[in-house]
Fold this protein.
Amino acid sequence: MNLHTRFSFEIVLFFILFMFGLIYVGNAWSPSSYGVFLQEHDPQHTGVLWGKPRAIRSDEWAVVTPLTQATVNNKFERYNNTSFYREDLRINYGLPIFDWGLVFKPTMWGYLFLKPAMAYSLNWYLIFVLFIVGYFKLFNSIGMERLLSLSVSVTLYFSTFSQFWWDEKGPVIAFFPWLVYLLLSKLKLLPTLLLFYWLSASWLITDFYPPTVISLGFVGAVLFICYGQHWLTIRKLVSLAITIIASVVTTLFYLKEYLLKTSQTLYPGHRSIDGGSLAWSDWLSQIFPFSTFDKDFNVFGMANICEVGAVGVPFLLMILVHINYKNPLKKSPTDKERSNIYICLVALLLVNLWMLAPVPSWMGKLFLWDNVHPVRMKYAAGVMLAICTLTVSNYLNFIVNIKRYVVYTVLILIAWYLTKLDYSNTNIDAGFFKNIRGLTKDLYFIPGILIAYIIIKYFKQQHVTSFVICSAIVSAIVIAPFNPIQSANAIFSDHKIIKNKIDEYVNPVDGTLAINGYPGATLNGLGYKSVTHVTAVPALMLWKKLFPNMNESEFQHIFNRYSHIHLANTSEPNSPQPDVVEVPFKKFVTRFYLPAINDGKIISLSKGDRLSGSFDNLPPGELTGFSPLIGNYGNTSKGVLLVKVCNSGVCEEAQVDLEKSTDNAYVPLFLHKKLKIYPQARTTYEFMLKSSADTSLALWSSNTTNSSILSINDINKQIKLIPNLEVNYAQ
C-alpha cells in the first residue's frame, strides 16, 4: 500500500468516525444500562432507544453512573457533600472531578464545557474511538496491512469480554494499544516520553483496575521486546524507565488516600491468587466465541454472563482449516521474525498456563500475576492469541475449496453440539428444531465464511484478511445487541417522578434518607443523602460512632471492606457477602413491619371501599407513618389512598396520590402530626380509596386470628386478613 493510499484509508476511517460521533454525541447516546433502574422506577421515561439494558451490569448502572451523577450534583468537587458518608470521590472508578487529575482523564474533558448528558455521551464515544483506532494503529505498526488491522480491531471490540465489561472496564482496554503503539513508533525521544507519561498516567487514573493493567502490561512488554529494538540504548531505556516510574508515582499520589485505605481492607484488600481456575468451556470460547450463552445471553451453568466473556478469535479456526498442508510456507521468516514468533508463542503459553494450570501464587509474583485472577487474564490472553495467530499466518499458504468448507462446517457443528446441545441437554427428537432456536448463533460462521470466500475471489484480498473480516462481521451481528443505546438525557434528567415517590421519606432535620429498594448508589445519584450506598473506601469513623460498643475484630470484619450498604431488619450489623454490609434500620429510623410474615394474600380495594382493623400490641411511642404494601397493577391505579389511625381517642390522618406510588412497594403514608401510642391501648386504623375513575388497588396481606372489616358499597364484611404494614416512629 503506497503512502497516498495509506493516508486515504485513514482519512476515510477518521471521517466515518467523526460523522458517526456527531450523530452519537449530538443525540447524547450512551452504552449505559441505567435503563434497568428507570424501567423499574419511571417506566415512561427510560430513555432506552435500542436494545435491552442489562441488569447484570450493575457495576455500571448502580455504581459508576450514579457516582458520576453524584459528582455532577456535587459541582465536580472531590468530597461528596451530597452523600451521607461525605466520601472521597478519588477512587478506582474515574469520575469527572475538577482537580488536577482531570488532566489525565481526557475522555472526561467534555464536562468542562458541555451539559452533563452530552459530556457523558462524549466520554463513552471517545473511549470507543480510542479502542478502534488504537488497535488498528497497533496491529498496523507490527506489520499487518491496514484493512486487516482494522478488521482485527473490530473483532476485538465485538468480543464478548469487551462488550460484557465495556461500560466499566472499557477505558482500561481502550487506552492500552496507544501506549504500545507510541513505543513502537519511531518518533523523537522527548515527545515520545512526554506523550507516554501522559497516556500511561491517563490509562491508570481514568479507570484503575490492576488485574487488567498488569496482564495487558505483560502483552505490551512482549511486543516491546519483539518490535522495540530502536529503544536498545542505555540512554533511551533509562529515560523510559524514569518515565514509567513518574507515571506510576503520579497515579499513586493522585489515588493515595484510596490506595492506602483499600490496602488495609478485608475486601478487596491484598489478595494473593493462584493460577488455574479458568473453566475449559471459557477457554474454548476463544475459538468458539458464542459457545457459553444462548441468543438472549443467558449462560449455561452457574456463572453470570460477564464472567464468561472472553476475546474470541474465530479466525483462528478458519486459518487452521484452510492452510495448504502440502505446501504450508509461503515464505520463510527471517531470523528476527522467527525469534519474534517464538517469543510471542512462549508468552501465549505462559498466560494460558496461568489460566488453566494449578500454578502457585508465588510463581506468579514474577509478573505480578498473583494479583490477577485467571478469569481476568482472558482479555490479555485473547489479544496475545490474535497477535500470534496473525503473525504466524503471514508466512502461510492457503487453499479455499468445497472440501475445506465442508471440514470447517463439520468442525463448527461438532463444537456446537458439544458446547451447546449437550450442555443444554437438548435432545435430538421431534421438538429438536423448536428447542434449538435460541442456540444457533454459533452456526452463523457457516454461511459467514462464504463472505470471506467472496472477498478472496472477487475483491482479491488476502486469505487471512478475508477471514478476519468475516470474524468481525459475524461477531458484530451476534454481540452488538448486548449493550443498549441509552439516552444520557434520561440519565441526567431531573427525575421528578421518581423523586416525588421518595421525598416524603427524607428526614426533614438532617436530610438523611433511609429506605431500601434502590440498589447501589442510585439514591445518591439522584441527590439524596442515602444510607444505602456504595462506599469504595469504608467509612470506619462513621460506623464507629454509630456502633461504639462493637467488638473491634467483629467491627473490622463487618465494616472494613468495599461495600454495598443495605438496610435490614436486623438487631446488629453483618456482612452476608464480601461486598455487602447490612446495618439495622433502627439506627436511622424507628420502623418495623406488621405482621412479621407476608403470606402473599391480597385485599382488593375499589373506588369508595374502606378497610378497618385494630392492633392491641403496638409499641408505645410517637407514630409517624402507617404505610401499607400495595400492588398498583403495573402503575395503573388512580386516585388517593387515605388512612386514619387512632389511639386513646386521638386520631391522625395521611394520604398519598397513587400516581406517585411504586408497584409492589410500601406506599409512604406519613401522618400529618405525630400520634402518641399509649401502652396497652388499642390502635385502630381505616384505609379508604378515593378516586374519580373506576380503579383498583391491591393491599398485600397476611392471615390473622383477628378480624378486619372490609366495607364495599357500605356493606361490611369480616375477613381474616391484615394488611402488611411498615410502621414508623419518631426517634
User: Anything to note?
Assistant: The mean pLDDT is 92. The first strand starts at residue 29 and ends at 30. The longest helix spans residues 116-141.
